[in-house]
Amino acid sequence: MADAAYGLWPLVIVNTLLFAAFGLSFFHPRTNRDWRAMGAYTAFLVALFTEMYGIPLTVYLLGSWLGSRFPLLRDTHAGGHLWNDRVGWTGDPHLSPFHLASYVAIGAGFWLIAAGWRRLHEASQADRLATTGPYAWVRHPQYGFLLVMIGFLLQWPTIPTLIMFPVLVYVYARLARGEEHAVAERFGQQWSDYAARTPAFVPHIRSLTRKPARTSLIRR
């Protein structure tokens, strides 16, 4: 190894457990669907931190193939920030635009999960459909995990995580559809009206500037 940033398996374990616990503290899974969503996120973390601190498989594979084209691609911890290597960023990788954008995406993802869970809990207590807060923008803010994953991909993309991400998007989309079928059966036209005006995952720009209605309604 060119430096001591890899082979740190205790750090792989600690970081995986830390971010998994962080996700649990925001998400509060209750149903089987919630736990499957949490499991998919945790699998992504394992793949990510294994390459970040354990074995830099992506750097080895791409370094042997593209090393002459991207000399910054090397088996050091700084050399594992592939977007930086791709554009030739030579400064501190933790201060690159990609890394700074990743902090915003990760923070926004966790905020979305926490804010959505709070509105969902309030609506659940009243046995109504959640449509306020983040639920006024998207139907599934609880899957802010996707935004967290995008943040990690901005700072440390790897071949396994880039392959996993579209698979996890598909998994979350299936989970979301299953939730929607259950809620549609329970709330009927009320759900249909809400779903017709509210996108599933990506908010409309105008909805982000619109003041949400004060009525609070449940998703389960």
Structure write-up:
- This protein has 220 residues and is mainly alpha-helical.
- The protein has a single domain (9-204), classed as Four Helix Bundle (Hemerythrin (Met), subunit A) (Up-down Bundle), CATH 1.20.120.
- It is 64% helix and 0% strand.
- It has nine helices and no strands.
- It has helices at residues 9-27, 32-54, 57-66, 82-87, 97-125, 145-155, 159-187, 189-197, 205-209.
- Helix 6 packs antiparallel against helix 7 (159-187) and helix 7 packs antiparallel against helix 8 (189-197).
- Residues 212-220 have low confidence and may be disordered.
Q: What's the topology here?
A:
Blueprint: H1 9-27, H2 32-54, H3 57-66, H4 82-87, H5 97-125, H6 145-155, H7 159-187, H8 189-197, H9 205-209
Keywords:
220 residues; mainly alpha; Four Helix Bundle (Hemerythrin (Met), subunit A); 64% helix; 0% strand; transferase activity
CA distance, first residue to last residue? 50 Å
Shape: elongated
| Overall SS class | mainly alpha
Number of domains: 1
In CATH, the topology is named Four Helix Bundle (Hemerythrin (Met), subunit A)
Number of strands: 0
What is the strand content?
A: under 5%
SSE ordering: HHHHHHHHH
How would a crystallographer describe the biggest sheet?
none
Secondary-structure arrangement, i.e. CATH architecture: Up-down Bundle
Q: Write down the Rg.
A: 20 Å
The average pLDDT is 82
Number of helices: 9
Low-confidence stretches: 212-220
GO cellular component, one term: endomembrane system
Protein name: Isoprenylcysteine carboxyl methyltransferase (ICMT) family protein
Keywords: Membrane, Transmembrane, Transmembrane helix
Transmembrane segments: 6-27, 39-63, 98-117, 145-173
